[in-house]
Write a structure and sequence with these properties.
Layout lengths: L1 H27 L2 H7 L4 H7 L3 H16 L11 H11 L3 H14 L7 H23 L9 H21 L6 H13 L4 H4 L3
Length: 196
Amino acid sequence: MARARSEERRADILRAALEVIAERGYRGASLGAVAERVGLTQQGLLHYFPTKEALLVAVLEERDRWDTSGGRGREGWRLDLIDSLVEYNAMRPGIVQTFSALLGESVTDGHPAREFFTERYAQVRAEMAKVLRLEFGERLPGGLTPERAAPLLTAVMDGLQYQWLLDPEAVDMPAAFRDFVALLTGRVTTEDRGDK
């Protein structure tokens, strides 16, 4: 019973941390603000997460667990499932904003999320290469290998998130991602190109 209560409290803290980071960025977010949102003192919060960096990494890991269906990882993913993830992200701007803000901040020297993102991107590129290999074999229709196309696929996903966050009325993130996949796979039709 106590363990379940502790896990529930940790989940509440992670949700509050996501909100605070989305509002203020990592550097502007304080442990005190997170603690206040969940009705704890800062000392009480430190019982669950001993440092701000530990809380940040837990937030990022939790976000990845949500994206990978309860922690199963991206094993067995296909392009259509990645498309579903983009659709899902379009329904949760706060989480996408938090992730994007932390990603942007993490490129600075000494940022506590830098190692997390460096490792995450290496893993994501490898997983995207597997997805592309399963779909196309050793060469995509345009001639790229899965390893060369994987960073492009990853960059488009994250780059679209930034554009969508800045101007959601002008950027239809799911549609733009489907357009990119059509280009990547060589499945653009004359109708898609606007040819008559």
